[in-house]
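Same chain as my last thread, 372 residues:
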Amino acid sequence: MLNVIGIIQPVFCFMATNMEKYDNINIICMKVGANLKKVLLVSIVSICLVLSAVSVNASTPQTVSEYLTLIDQMLDEAKYAEALSYTDMALKMDDKSALLFFYKAEALVEMGRYEEAVGCYSTALRLDPTDEVTYNSLGLALEYMGRYEEAVKRYDMAVALDPLYDFAYYNKGKSMFYMGRYADAILCFDKSIELDPEYAPAYNRKGICYEYLHKLAEAISCYDKAIKLDPKYTTAYVNKGQTLDRSGKYKEAIEVYDKAIEIDPKYAPAYNSKGKAYEQLYKFNEAIECYRKAIAADPNYIYAHNNKGIVQFYMGEKEEALKCFTKVIELDPYFTAAYYNRAAIYVNMHKSKETLADLRKAVEQDPSWKKR
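reply #2:
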């Protein structure tokens, strides 16, 4: 839970960031080749190449089919720049291939070039407006850009083409969540679960929605189902622990965080959340140690730096706290709370110039800070 110190009461908003961060990886990994038609096409091409004794690794591809096989291989090996290069070469041979534009968009998404990816997905859909996976992937690209309403429309088009497309319902639920439509998101996750009862992330996301609706028992039930389906699902453990925190069950929460750490000793969010639980038990030295372990696991984990700074400030370690908030700002100049927290320290140190500079920066980034 991200919070701030000093003049105003703490603000709790870490939970959403942590809970959403890790599921996205599942979707990115799964969407490449998710379309059975595309998989079959590439498989057929591969078989034909083997039968004709052609090795795409031995020489430059000579046909679009050979390029498709090589591009698929590059995407599987996470060689996205190479995949993009080969796709551009293949498009010079056939600029009417929806599959080539789809693959180009996939590579662009993985490289974080979402606007370009949207253009390629859109071109693919103009060439083949009946492909549900391209609509789903376009929705994901729009989602990554924060264009949630547009994303929902694409997911709706995907399920209109394939009413059994569980991932499209799941992704629609995510966008609904980001728009704050938690009840609608739950309906989407329920549909995804109906189509695939074994998909743990859908239960995890449903739990997050229940938590935002203040239905903590229902949230914990969802996290338990996710963990039952995937006993190594560290994100679900952390989410369950945070819900226990909100219920005032800090010792139980620590046990759950320890389970996540046992599964993955390098999982920074578990150490960070464990530190927050120790804070609630007024065990500040233990909290700081947890934050240190979180930072050791992930030196760029801004929430642990921020939380460590808060505890150190309250323990009178102003200089160390100042270093923490400065590190947060260095890692993420748009982390507004860090400016506010650092300003609180500057006030305590009677540095009015620095205080005003940080407060102005906080309000510039988020005008709502004027009310704090």
